[in-house]
Amino acid sequence: MKRRTYLRAASAVVLCIAAFAGRAAAEVAAVHKYIGADKCAMCHKAEAKGNQYGKWLASSHAKAWETLASPKALEIAKKKGITTAPQATEACVKCHVTGFGQVAAMFDAGFKKELGVQCEACHGPGSDYKAISVMKDKAAAVAAGLIIPDEAMCKKCHNAESPTFTAFDYKTMYAKIAHPRPAAPK
């Protein structure tokens, strides 16, 4: 009798562990992954569609990683008492690389952190909304992880914590990086 009770209890524990492991695996599978600006470019570089990729490429965001290797960044780091290279310092990298702090499983093969503050830093990991069939339906894209950025999103990096921060006027700065999709011809 005791053995039967023990086996039932052990079976229940095994079932609970299996259920938890299955749920955890499903949650990991449901996580959106960063795909990188290069993949966004496939659909977002045509002039007829607004050339959002070209506008990003010409922005400071696209150069954010390389900026950390500049003599100016080294000077700023030194003034702030940072003794490691800015590209190796969490306080700097967190706002100069898309997806900073995320586990490796969150990144698609081929993702390049060297591309700086990429599309997904503002719009969220794109693995599940990148399909054209999803992108044509804004609600479906949002449901698949697309983020429509706002002032609060920008202020996660553009704030007094930044050593080069002076002020941040959202409307003015947003106008500099705006990359709307042109209206469809009527």
Report on the structure:
The chain has 186 residues and is mostly helical. The protein folds into two domains: 1-30; 32-177, Flavocytochrome C3, Chain A (Flavocytochrome C3, Chain A, domain 2), CATH 1.10.1130.10. It contains eleven helices and no strands. It has helices at residues 2-29, 37-44, 52-57, 64-67, 71-79, 90-93, 119-123, 132-135, 138-143, 151-154, 170-177. The radius of gyration is 22 Å and the shape is globular. Mean pLDDT is 85; it is low at 9-29.
For the record, give the distance between the C-alpha atoms at the N and C termini, rounded to a whole number: 79 Å
Q: What is the H/E order?
A: HHHHHHHHHHH
User: Strand pairing plus helix content: what structural class?
Assistant: mainly alpha
Find the CATH topology of the largest domain: Flavocytochrome C3, Chain A, domain 2
- Radius of gyration in whole Å, from Cα? 22 Å
Shape: globular
Provide mean pLDDT, rounded.
85
Number of domains: 2
Q: Indicate the CATH architecture of the largest domain.
A: Orthogonal Bundle
Kindly state the percentage of residues in helix: 40-55%
Task: Determine the CATH superfamily of the largest domain.
Answer: Flavocytochrome C3, Chain A
Total beta-strand segments: 0
Q: How would you sum up the major sheet? A: none
CATH class of the largest domain: Mainly Alpha
Low-confidence stretches: 9-29
- Output the number of helix runs: 11
Binned strand content:
under 5%
